[in-house]
Amino acid sequence: MSVSDFNSEAGTVSIRLAKGGKVRHVALADEGRALFTNLTAGRGGRVLTFQKADGKAWGPSHQQRPLTEASRVAGVEPAVTFRVLRHTYGSVLAMKGVPMGVIAAQLGHSGTRMTEKHYAHFAPSYVADTVRASLPPLADFKPSNVVLIAGRS
């Protein structure tokens, strides 16, 4: 990821080397936006955002080792991986009621089918909300029209 992949105005980062081969723009939380603002301040557009002391790119082990160590210090087992972080991100969005289409876009899914399969169960009201949004209103229903039948409660 290079410095130019961060859009400070939109608060997004562009993921160019994604699994599906398509660039996607991921929205950052305020803390992420602040982090990337600090990491990119005063640096040129094609300079790597994350780099080793010698200016070269991080390799996979340079990313996982710190996560493994942080997990050990925090007492988290098994150790956190980027896959776990990605799944947690999708799960939290679903639990907060974010539409499946938005979650799919953030995770780089080509449609909502895979997103619904893996994340819809985290949104307890997802099915109910989808059904309610698709049904027309009952035009003649008025709460005052409903009467309790004697002897029933």
Describe the structure.
The protein is mainly alpha-helical. The protein has six helices and three strands, in the order βββαααααα. The longest helix has 15 residues, at 60-74. It is elongated and about 85 Å long.
Order of helices and strands: EEEHHHHHH
Mean pLDDT: 87
Q: Between the first and last Cα atoms, what is the distance in angstroms? A: 63 Å
Uncertain residue segments: none
Morphology: elongated
Strand order of the largest sheet: 1-2-3
Question: Structural class of the helices, strands and pairings?
Answer: mainly alpha
Strand fraction: 5-15%
Total of domains: 2
What's the alpha carbon Rg, rounded to whole Å?
23 Å
Number of helices: 6
The beta-strand count equals 3
Q: Mind summarizing the main beta sheet?
A: 3 strands, antiparallel
Which descriptors apply to this entry?
153 residues, mainly alpha, 2 domains, three-stranded antiparallel β-sheet, 3 strands, 42% helix, 7% strand
Task: Provide a brief overview of the structure.
By secondary structure, this protein is mainly alpha-helical. The protein has two domains: 58 residues, no CATH class; 77 residues, no CATH class.
Layout: helices, strands, pairs:
Elements: E1 6-7, E2 12-15, E3 24-27, H1 30-40, H2 60-74, H3 82-95, H4 100-107, H5 113-119, H6 126-134
Antiparallel strand pairs: 1-2, 2-3
Helix pairs in contact: 3-4, 4-5
